[in-house]
Amino acid sequence: MPKRILQGKVTSDKNAQTVTVLVERRFKHPLLNKIVRSTKKYRAHDAENHFKVGDTVRIIECAPISKTKRWTVLTDDSASQAVEA
After folding, report:
1. Into how many domains does the chain fold?
2. Which residues in the chain land under pLDDT 50?
3. DSSP H/E element including 79
């Protein structure tokens, strides 16, 4: 089974080697037939403490690192967009 990759915004970088990422998903409500936004926070491993609050990052599933960390930061989207431009 492939590993899930999610995109979100860093909301906290206070812990060592950990960032909290807010991921937003949009879906059509089955009864109301309107687009609904739902958010969820994930704690992701950031080995080099590179990412700061406000950065847009991609995270990928991994084996459990601690009690709450099951994700690893994959890339920094804003940095990759700057390289392409």
Report:
1. 1
2. 83, 85
3. helix 77-84
